[in-house]
Amino acid sequence: MTIHAYSGRIALVGDRSPHVRSHQRVPQVLERMREREGLDLDVYWVPTDEVGAMDGFDGIWVLPGSPYRSEAGAISAIRTAREQGIPFLGTCGGFQHAMLEYARHVCGATGVHHAENTPDADDLLIVPLACSLDGHEAAVEVRPGTLAGRLLGAERSTERYHCSYGLAPGRQSLLEEHGLVFSAYDDGAPRVAELPAHPFFLVTLFQPELSGDGTRPHPFIQAFAHAAAAHAGPAPTARPATTARPAPTARPAATARPAATGTNGQIVESGRGAMPASR
Fold first, then answer.
1. Mean pLDDT, the chain, whole residue set
2. What is the Cα–Cα distance from 198 to 216, expressed in whole angstroms?
3. Which pTM does this prediction carry?
4. Spatial separation of the C-alpha atoms in residues 64 and 50, rounded to whole Å
5. Which strands, in side-by-side order, build the sheet including 124-128?
6. What is the pLDDT of residues 196-221, one digit of tens each?
7. If pLDDT is split at 50, 70 and 90, which confidence band does 14 have?
């Protein structure tokens, strides 16, 4: 069996569902990276209503699938990644909730809300898109010199969406004034944001995990995985992929125990934490 150097622990934060295409694709993409690049990432599913202390992870990815069972749980995971310097990727719902987290805890706009969760709130930061992007592809214009620009190596990219909510018009300046950088747009509407002072903090309204056929990672995912490996630091020795390691102590007890062996995307006991059967 191929031996890989340990490359860190990643939390996939989201309420796992067989109906969310992203939830099926992400483990496949990470597995292909393990095979192609030797990144031996332990990947754990963390439901939003079971988020606890997250600082035991080397990377946190808030996945699509909103409305989440717990808005507070998703925002807590994002805040931990931002404040603790843990590599962070947020896609679709992850983008939307990263906007909420930043507005509330950095910009002081504590009363902002998400229209999908609280449609009757007075101060909506995340609102329905004028034109839904659910199931669509669209071109984004990327700002040169940004992290997104460097990773894509181009000023234009076509990306896949499955969302109907985005940042409310006129609210971008609030976030920019406090250090958030919007690095890609679609017809003037922000689609990617990043924090330049953070080791790796990138959020996209589109879903880079759906790029291509899943055999090669989108540059954003590849960079996130390598950032998580860098956060973990070098392992003292390489070890067989089947060797068990304890879960991070910060991980909620409910997600620490993998389910019984299954097929077709069920969680399995692999000695490496909770992962789909394709792992």
1. 83
2. 26
3. 0.83
4. 17
5. 113-114, 124-128, 165-167
6. 999 999 999 999 999 988 888 999 99
7. very high
pLDDT digits (tens, 9 = 90+) for 95-105: 999 999 999 99
18 — phi, psi (to 5°)? -70, -10
CA distance 6 to 39: 7
Per-residue pLDDT at 133 exceeds 80: no
**Structure tokens given for 111:** 């009363």
CA angle 276, 54, 118 (to 5 degrees): 85
- For 5, 179, 198, 278, the CA distances from 227, given in Å and listed in that order, are 15, 21, 11, 24
Contacts of 24 (CB under 8 A, 6+ apart): 18, 265, 276
Distance CA 142, CA 170 (A): 20
Q: Which residue has the tokens 């940004």?
A: 146
HSE (CB half, 13 Å, CA atoms) of 122?
A: 3
DSSP string, 190-246: EEEEE-TTSSSEEEESS-GGGSTTSSS--HHHHHHHHHHHHHH---SS-EETT---P
Query: What are the C-alpha distances in Å from 238 to residues 2, 99, 159, 242?
Result: 10, 39, 36, 12
